[in-house]
Amino acid sequence: MSGSSARVRVFLSYSHDDNGHRRRVLQLGEQLRRDGVQLHMDRFERAAPADWNRWFWQQVVQADWVLVICTRGYRLRHEGKAHRLDGRGGRFDTVVMPDLYDAAVRATRFLPVLFDPSDRAYIPQRMREAGYTTVNTPEAYALLRERLQQAPRSAAPTARHVPARRGGGVTV
Predict the structure, then answer these.
(1) Pairing mode, if any, of strands 38-40 and 65-69?
(2) Residue 98, pLDDT score
(3) Report field, pTM of the whole predicted structure over 0.90
(4) CA torsion 116→24→57→131, rounded to 10°?
(5) If 0-12 CB within 10 Å is exposed, 13-18 middle and 19+ buried, where does residue 14 land?
(6) CA separation for the pair 50, 67 (Å, rounded)
(7) What letter would DSSP give residue 124?
């Protein structure tokens, strides 16, 4: 990876579908970091943030790229159709992603990622025009890594008010 790629910041968003899926996501994140990508995700946090909503939004705002691991669970959570107790991840995206797409960031900073090409149906509707990438082969992973070396075509959104979980809100 080139020296300039270290400046490109990547955030990885995913749903906590099951242990196997979480393990695959962690392995992807670790591999990208080993390959020099400045990757951020919840599993790399030393301590749980006081407010996950705020943390999530800050990651999205600061990222040059947002990788979205699309699965059935992610899409259900993104669309608000998952049972309240079914795992984690993907829920805050229902608040954040529409705002970002409406702010003309559509199809540039957000990159749907599939572990299996058959999961294409699980890319949320609003993200489909962004295209997608797979990471199911070494060649596909190499293409993703190369793409992450390039800055996306649009800038990150500016600060905005995000409601806190209980009462009040925060500006990030």
Answers:
(1) unpaired
(2) 52
(3) no
(4) -20
(5) buried
(6) 23
(7) -
User: Could you tell me which residues come within 8 angstroms of residue 61 by beta carbon, excluding any fewer than 6 positions away?
Assistant: 156, 157, 158, 159, 172
List, as one string, the DSSP characters of 126-162. GGGGG--EE-SSHHHHHHHHHHHTSPPSSPPP---EE
Token pair of 37 as six digits: 């990508």
**Tokens of residue 91, six digits:** 């829920």
- Backbone angles phi and psi of 48, in degrees to 5: -65, 130
pLDDT, tens digit only, all 172 positions of the chain? 444 444 789 999 888 888 999 999 999 999 999 999 999 998 777 766 677 778 888 888 888 898 999 998 888 877 777 655 444 554 455 445 555 544 534 547 888 999 999 999 998 877 787 788 999 999 999 999 999 988 675 555 544 444 444 433 333 3
Determine the 3-state secondary structure of 16 from DSSP. coil
Helix (H, G, I), strand (E, B) or coil at 161: strand
* Locus of tokens 């008010």: 161
Distance CA 3, CA 7 (A): 8
d(CA 26, CA 126): 25
**Lookup result for tokens 């082969």:** 137
Rounded CA separation 43/22 (Å): 9
